[in-house]
Structures are given as structure tokens and as C-alpha cells.
Amino acid sequence: MAPHERIILAGGRGFLGAVLATHFAARGHEVIVLTRTPRPGEGPAYDAAWDGKTVGDWARLLDGAAAVVNLAGRSGNCRYHARNRRLLLASRVQS
User: Fold this and answer.
1) What tens digit of pLDDT does each residue of 34-85 get?
2) How far apart are alpha carbons 25 and 49 in whole angstroms?
3) In angstroms, rounded to a whole number, what is the distance separating the alpha carbons of residues 88 and 82?
């Protein structure tokens, strides 16, 4: 990826999202986190309000983005069995 490209992290306020945001920002990328609870001015990324269900003003931020990483959904920190697999997959696909 060339420097100064836009990277979108959907649901990027967790542990992995924070690591990725720092990584990409340190390499000169514009990092945008789509989140239900925007925290302006906190961290290396710009937060945009997003509910994971409806298209809103945030959708314009996708234009010209080099990458979109979907980190939204149910936590993977759970027992791995058929029911949780279904819930994990559905939570990511629906967003």
C-alpha cells in the first residue's frame, strides 16, 4: 500500500483495531474507524458514527479507500462450537 491511502476499520475500537490503526497511521495512512461510539481526537484515527446496519453519511468515506477491514461483530473470545460459530459469522456478515 502506498502512503497516504485511506484505510477503513469497521468496528475498529477493540484491541486489534487499535493495533491496526496505530500501524497504518505510523505509515502515513489516513485511518478511519467506523464505530457506534465515536471518540473525536482520541488515538491516531478519525472516528465516524456507524451502526453496522444502515447506510449513512459514513458511506461517503468508502470512496477512494484502499482497504476496508471488518472487525465488527461478536467477540471471538468464546468457546468454539456450532452455535457460537453461527453467531460469530452472522454478526460479521450482517454488518
Assistant:
1) 999 998 887 889 999 999 888 999 999 999 999 999 998 888 788 889 998 9
2) 20
3) 10
Cβ(12)–Cβ(21) below 8 Å:
yes
| Cell 478511519 found at | 32
Burial level of 84, CB count in 10 A (0-12/13-18/19+)? middle
* pTM of the entire predicted model: 0.84
Of 64, 81, 69, nearest to 10 (Cα)?
A: 69
Q: Which of 78, 16, 12 is nearest to 45 (CA)?
A: 12
C-alpha cell at 61: 468515506
Long-range contacts of 37-41 (CB under 8 A, 24+ apart): 37/13, 39/13
